[in-house]
Amino acid sequence: MPVEVDVGLATLSDQLTLATVLLYIVAMIGYALDLGFGRVRSTAKATAKARTAGEPALVTVGGDAAGVSQDTPRDEAPEEKAPPAWALRAAPVALALTWLGWAANLAAILTRGWAIGRWPWGNMYEFVVAMCFAAVSAFLFMHLRYRNLFLGAFVTVAAALGLGFAVRYLYVQAGPVVPALNSYWVAIHVSAAIIASGLFIMAGVAGVLFLVRKDSAVRLPSRQDLERVAHRAIVVGFPIWTFAVIAGALWADKAWGRYWGWDPKEVWAFITWIAYAAYLHARATAGFRGRAAMIVQLIAFACLMFNLVGVNIFLGGLHSYAEVPG
Amino acid sequence: MEEVKQAEPGRTAGRREPDGDERAVRPGSFGVVAWARWFWRTLTSMRTALILLFLFALASVPGSIWPQRGVSDAKVSQYFSDSPALAEWLDRLWLFDVFRAPWFAAIYLLLFLSLIGCVLPRAATHLRELRKKPPAPPRNLLRLPQNASFEGDLTVEEAAKRLRRMRFRVVTGPGWVSAEKGYLRETGNLIFHVALLGLLVAVGAGALYGYRGNVLVVEGEGFANTVAAYDRYMPGQQVSAESLEPFSFTLDDFQATYIAQGERRGQPLDFEARLKVTDAPGAGQRDYTLKVNDPLDVNGTLTYLIDHGYAPTFKITDGRGQVAFDGPVPCLVVQPATFTSECVIKVPDAQPEQLGLLIGFLPTTVPMNGEWISVFPGAANPTAQVYGAFAGDLGLRNGRPQSVYELDPTSLKKMKPLVMKADPLAVGKKLDLPNGMGSIEFTGLRQWIALQITHDPGRMPALVASALSVIGLVLSLTVRRRRVWVRIGDRQEKDSGHVEIGGLTRTEGSDFSEEFAGIVAALNPGVNNDAR
Ligand code: HEM
After folding, report:
1. Sign, CA torsion B18/B21/B22/B23
2. Cβ(A100) – ligand 1 distance below 6 Å
3. In B, which residues are within 8 Å of A7 by CB distance?
4. How far apart are CA A271 and CA A149, in angstroms?
5. CB A57: neighbour CB atoms within 10 A?
6. What is the mean pLDDT of residues B262-269?
7. Which pTM does this prediction carry?
8. What is the structure's pLDDT at A316?
9. Which one of A64, A65, A76, A125 is least enclosed by Cβ atoms within 10 Å?
10. What is the ipTM of this complex?
């Protein structure tokens, strides 16, 4: 087990993390300018157009996916006067900056891993940095497919806040981990938890926006768009979270002699899991769709965040990486 | 989902709709059967499932707030001694045993009853549907959520062939083709819910037919897997003492490695216990290195390394010159960062009076402000410091059980103090007790390890059920059920080359339009689709 820490690489990693924060903040400003001054955008219309364009002229394709009705107020709003030229450039610039920040974030994680010769998620600091990375990745990769640029400002601000919090309050110098964490299950269990959390953060951001936006706020993404983004992220995230919990049970079976012992972290992982399952059921239940389902989603998200931060601080237990009690 | 339902005549009957409109109607009269049916319908409705899911999550919260028996027993006793009145009330509400509480059991039993009631009829419906053919097309395909039309010479056979190639299940009729795929969604959903039931059964079986125990072993000593050898033994209700796997081992050596330098000085790096294991009486010995993430497995009975500490050895000579005690004393760790430990020695055989000693153990001793402290968990400069030595009745004969790790406080009050806070002894050094009560010698240093030994027959079934649940979940969340109808020739003049295609997905919130466009393109002979 390597004990040596490459100090140069570790320092580089810290600097890269700071660069990431800056890039995300600048990107966030770009997205905000685009939302505030750019073209009033309708994702529904834009995607419909993109779809039709690719098809043979003979074919007429009507209708749209279930759930996207065409009568949102935005679509019928009269064409506004053209936005200033700089405002049109804000979105692509912001997107480029986000990719740059994403690359810096990735590099920060990799260099930290190389500096210590292990998977770089052995403590809260490393965990939060990786989770912000996962959230931005979720946004960027979903954007490649679904063009959900409207979430950019909110995801980057969440990631910048998360990273800032990690650097300010959770930072620990790079180093080796305690024996209990020295297992390949760290790679499997924690990676899955990080990826799922990244997706849930995306969904959570969409959920918060869904609840705070007013009907008259034309420039904010529509409720339907937000709902769809949240649902997509959770549909992908939930099986990954399920897998993470199971991998955690397998690891606990190896490390602590039982696969499930109702340790506080386990309790809250379970609660989070049930809450997201409740969200999926709520979406399938009449009278719970829309706003109510979103509230369920946000409760689940709050459980996720409490598990990440609250349990370590308030409740302790085996997962606080303290001594293993006898 | 609304428009989907309208466009689907006769569909809803085939499947339990999870919507509120199937909510059970409360019976007006008091027939037992009517009430039972009402109860069952209510219990298995989606709304009830949702509420039960919430209750289930909510009910687990206290389990993370208050310490739980079997998870952190020490903290539970602490709670009882800190605030006895409150603790008693909490205990009455099972708040120290949340996951074994009757109210917790009530919720999950209701949930799983609801699950069974939900899944069984659905499974039956699904099996029936798997054998049914896709329904004939609705009258007007162009009113479906997905629709397209074009002119071209597509025949019914050709359309059916192409749809089959896209792995649709296909039925044809005069001038129409009806196709459906995505049955795996419902299959996956059923697998998931059934796997959850299986998981519960596996966990329950494990609790009934498995056992768990803790034991502390000092270097040089051994353990044989019998009920009597455990410090704490927790069997399931169906476990008999004879069924314990008859293995044994001795602990040759335990090694803990720590970071010696820098900011993380003292952080443990590795623990290794070297065992000599005998799998069954009469079998040969084998070496095994027990590590933290690497339990010893003897036919499914697993031994885990969960804790460790120091066991300094002492020799106590009493006032008559007899050796009254000679051996290792496992010490409790007081400060994990430096392994400052506390040891208790009770010497009931000492003459003329029984002796009780309270000893501090410092693995790496340095002086500090006239005191002695440990600065490192490794044993670089081990010393034992007699905090207190007492003579008198240890109170062992009054029948009350005592912890070996503490001197009974009521007896201690009646004992005579001999020594308070002596200077630390290095290995090989001796301290004479005053009043001719004898002496204590710090003869050497060993270590102890705490082991947890478990046998859980539900382990593998639980793993299989979880794996199935993930597979089912992925299917149920990614597969989309969709139907496509093709009608060729308009209603007046048959086979004129006018093709109408309609499609819909039963899956809410999913985007079928892209795939539908692909299907339309694949059916349109005007488009070159050899590439597909
Ligand atoms: C521990 C308990 C449960 C968990 C974790 C759970 C989880 C899930 C998940 C993840 C889905 C997928 C949702 C989707 O397809 O979007 C689902 C669907 C479903 N569940 Fe459960 N479930 C549980 C209990 C129940 C119970 C008790 C019922 C019966 C009342 C039930 C009825 C259903 C139904 C009808 C669906 C299909 C919804 C649809 O296709 O739209 N579930 N469940």
Report:
1. positive
2. no
3. none
4. 31
5. 7
6. 79
7. 0.78
8. 57
9. A76
10. 0.77
